[in-house]
Amino acid sequence: MKKNNSHLTLKSFFLLLTLLKLGCDSQKSSKYPPEIQIIPSPKEIIKDRDNDALELKNTISVFIKGQNSKKFFDLFTNDFKKIFSQNLNFKKSEKMNSDISFNIDNSLRDEEYKIEIDKNVIITGGSYNAISMAKSSLLQIIKLKGNKTIILPKSKIFDMPDSSYRGLMIDLARMWHSIESIRNVIDLASFYKIKYLQLHLSDDQAFVFPTDSFPNLPTPDRPYTKKDFVELVEYAKIRGVTIVPEIDVPGHSRQFIETYPKIFDVNNGIKKSNVINIASEKVYKALDQIIAEVAEVFYNSPFIHMGADEAKLDLYKNVKEVKSFMNKNKLGDDVHELYRYFIVRINEIVKKYDKQMLVWEGFRKEGKIKIPKDIIVFEFETLYNHPKNLIEDGYTLVNASWTPLYAVYGGVKNKMAQRAVWSPERIFKWNKWRWEHFSKSVPGYNPIQLKETNQVIGGQMCSWEQSGEAEIPVLRKRLPVFSERVWNDKPKKSFDETLSTIERVDKILTLIIKDSRQDSILVGFNFKKDGCLWCDPNKEIE
User: Fold this and answer.
1) The whole model's pTM is what?
2) Backbone φ and ψ of 531, nearest 5°
3) Lowest mean pLDDT among 131-135, 326-330, 350-354, 437-441
């Protein structure tokens, strides 16, 4: 009996070992590297203590509910397959407890989102744009295991931006951009949570908006159609990016004058004038028609940028028609008052189409005609109006500081312009209350650091005179650093840590846009070769 009992006991022992082993195998989980890296850095990440990871394989179910759910599902799964594997399968599900679920919760702030990863992935955002941004974060942290399995770090991520305006501008008027190159810029902006893409649609060199009201105005060698822009608006919208149109008046407007001189030209006897006649009711009527068309095409933009910068006001002096208009409207003898009058009139037209007007810094502090406070001023040069004055006068600002937020590099023949591009490290040292400039004649040459104020709602990088082909190589390592600084007022990590993360996620961006081209991130001023034309090479950044 004892022998039999021993045999049974030994058998039971081995059976128990087998069950334990099977149990361990069935509960085996993957591990995720200790650090979760996302650009821009989220406000809070709560990691699993053991760095356990969720595995998703075979067919992955995705729940999305909302007006654009089908388009968002296609975008999400297509990006997924570009990055990870064509062998991954997805199905759109109606179940909220799917493998991955996207939910809109109106109790959250508009751009606030949460990602919770445990037994499945639950993404919640305060708006469509919020879940679109959460998608970008998710794509940055997913890793592939084998050909058909992905792993995600078990964690909770809470995030929202510190700045409501996070912008990028590209210059379609001076340099040609193919539709494909613009799409790639939109993808870049979306990946790094840049909310607004401003299109500079008019300048002395070209007018690229296809207006029906003035069919000769669009420049022939810039063959964009309204359909092109409508499709770009939708392409950007589904990616959480809003396109902001810009029509630059009254300066930078030679195309208006050359194509329709009887309407727009100032009778000042000067050839190649580039200011439109703001002392003519014909001009206000014409701009109303153009703005109406722009508002219709860019329907989802809350803004229209009307330029209003660098207007050569001396071109209005001693013109009989201008003097008569100013007398009639009791503007006195100072043409700057006429310019201020113009801004007020155009603002009323823009508001008529339910848009808010944006302008570049251009009007001075002094003036009898009050510039409305509902205009948002993009302060770039500090020459026309000091940012401190604008804040004290109650204006809302977007920081577009020439240094280090301007990129003027690829495809430009002008030797000076080619040097106007800054390293990622220089951008990292900027903040949205700081303005700098290269010229000693400009106040910003000595950096202006204002006290923190909610009147500065964000910042914008500006890519001037740069070809469409140059945008991605120049911007791909600079824009994410800018995004980090407008997303987080206080840096979450050092520059070296931030750049290390950018280098990693940039490989993911390459797969999405199918473009690996990269300029040197160290491009800047070559002082020894070209001399110091724009700034002091011995001057340290504070």
Assistant:
1) 0.90
2) 80, 165
3) 437-441
CB 41 within 8 A of CB 492: yes
Q: Measured between alpha carbons, how far is 257 from 214 in angstroms, rounded to an integer?
A: 12
Same domain, 280 and 321: yes
Cα dihedral value 157, 160, 162, 165, nearest 10: 140
Tell me the mean pLDDT in the region 50-79: 93
pLDDT attached to residue 522: 52
- CATH (domain of 383): 3.20.20.80
Parent domain of 82: 30-159
Averaged pLDDT for residues 52-65 = 93
Determine the 3-state secondary structure of 89 from DSSP: strand
| Residues 446 and 312 occupy one common structural domain | yes
Give the C-alpha separation, 324 to 220, whole Å: 36
Phi-psi region of 348 (alpha: psi -120 to 50; beta: other; left: phi over 0): alpha
Q: Does 201 share its domain with 338?
A: yes
Pair 378, 471 in one domain: yes
Measure the CA–CA gap between 102 and 135, rounded to whole angstroms.
Answer: 9
Mean of all residue pLDDT scores within the chain? 89
307 dihedral zone (left: phi>0; alpha: psi -120 to 50; beta): left
57 and 181 fall within a common domain: no
| Residue 363 scores a pLDDT above 90 | yes
Decide which of 142, 159, 176 is a domain's last residue.
159
Between CA 433 and CA 436 the distance in angstroms is 10
pLDDT tens column, 301-334: 999 999 999 999 999 999 999 999 999 999 999 9
What residue type is assigned to position 51 of the chain? N
